[in-house]
């Protein structure tokens, strides 16, 4: 992936170590369902209700306390993140403009160890996530190493897919999908499970990442042989069924939060092949 071709974003921030954000943990409904990899790393392994995992108070053990030191970020990695985020800004601004709407760019904050956000405190263990409360994507660059080692999903485009997926949640927020999901939940729709709202929202974010990949490739021609396969492999490696099978040797569909490996691949490919967000309606029909 010739990521150097990407437009650089001015919205990449580095955690100063001073804390920021605040709030009483990831609960209280402020996260929506979020569709975060925090749910994957915790929920997939421990088979717990993902919303219960988020309903924590900052005073409980494990909550992040600011170190007072700024995050240590490699300049080249920051430049990579800036290039990918910049490409998403251009792509989604164009798409929203075509719909007669204005796209508001998200911020992306790089952190180390942990971070305080408008959705509460999070440690490195939660992985990348999007907080609708402050419209920010949060990323500890150590997660890229985990992609290589734990998830066996190496390559720049696999890393770009992770960022694009989280930006996909920001797109959902901009389109009012978070609010609609919250309304469906209040009306009794189930969050977790193979057919639940969480899975449907996650798969839509995968589809939106595919749309970004399609539109950006048309504009920049920056993909190289094997890049698409690396993104599809990343999507496959972080499917609910794959991670549950690796962690416990069994698969529990009732605890799914993100979708199976096959579903994640399918919906990324749907977005990538079509380049059309109208093809990303994961809330209607079979997945």
From TrEMBL:
It comes from the Bacteria. Keywords: Membrane, Transmembrane, Transmembrane helix. Residues 1-10 have a biased composition (Basic and acidic residues). GO terms for cellular component: membrane. The chain crosses the membrane at residues 29-47. The keyword Transmembrane helix applies. It is found in: Membrane. Residues 1-23 are annotated as: Disordered. Pfam families: Zn_peptidase. InterPro entries: Uncharacterised_pept_Zn_put (IPR007343). It is a single-pass membrane protein. This is Neutral zinc metallopeptidase.
């Amino acid at each position: 992936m010739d990521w150097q071709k990407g437009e650089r974003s001015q919205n990449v921030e580095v955690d100063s170590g001073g804390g920021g954000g605040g709030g009483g943990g990831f609960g209280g409904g402020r996260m929506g369902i979020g569709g975060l990899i925090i749910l994957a790393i915790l929920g997939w392994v421990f088979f717990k209700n993902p919303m219960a995992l988020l309903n924590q108070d900052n005073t409980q053990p494990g909550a992040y306390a600011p170190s007072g030191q700024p995050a240590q970020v490699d300049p080249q990695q920051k430049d990579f993140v800036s290039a990918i985020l910049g490409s998403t800004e251009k792509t989604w601004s164009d798409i929203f403009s075509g719909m007669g709407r204005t796209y508001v760019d998200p911020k992306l904050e790089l952190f180390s160890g942990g971070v305080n956000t408008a959705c509460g405190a999070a440690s490195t263990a939660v992985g990348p996530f999007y907080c609708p409360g402050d419209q920010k994507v949060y990323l500890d660059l150590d997660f890229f190493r985990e992609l290589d080692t734990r998830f066996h999903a190496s390559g720049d485009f696999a890393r770009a897919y992770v960022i694009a997926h989280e930006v996909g949640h920001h797109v959902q927020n901009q389109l009012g999908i978070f609010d609609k999901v919250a309304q469906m939940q209040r009306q009794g729709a189930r969050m977790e499970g193979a057919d639940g709202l969480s899975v449907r929202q996650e798969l839509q974010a995968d589809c939106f990442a595919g749309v970004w990949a399609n539109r950006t490739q048309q504009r920049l021609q920056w993909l190289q042989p094997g890049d698409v396969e690396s993104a599809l492999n990343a999507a496959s490696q972080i499917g609910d069924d794959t991670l549950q099978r690796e962690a416990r040797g069994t698969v529990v569909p009732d605890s799914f939060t993100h979708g199976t490996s096959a579903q994640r691949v399918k919906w990324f490919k749907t977005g990538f092949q079509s380049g059309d967000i109208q093809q990303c309606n994961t809330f209607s029909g079979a997945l």
